[in-house]
Amino acid sequence: MTIRIGTRGSKLALAQTATVCKKLSALGISSEQVIMNTQGDTSTGVPLHEIGGQGVFVRALDDAILAGHIDCAVHSMKDIPAFRPSGLVTAAVLKRDSAADYLAYNGSLDAVKVIGTSSTRRRAQLLRHDPDISIKDLRGNVDTRIRKMTAGEFDAILLAEAGLTRLGIRIPGERFPIEKFVPAPNQGTIAVVSRTDPSLMEGLSNLDHSQTRTDVAVERAVMEQLGGGCFTPLGIYCHEGHLIAEVLSLDGTRTERIETDIQTIEQAREQGRRLHTSAKDLIDDAYQKLGIQA
Question: Could you tell me the domains of the chain?
Answer without folding.
Answer: 1-94+189-208 (3.40.190.10), 101-175 (3.40.190.10), 209-294 (3.30.160.40)
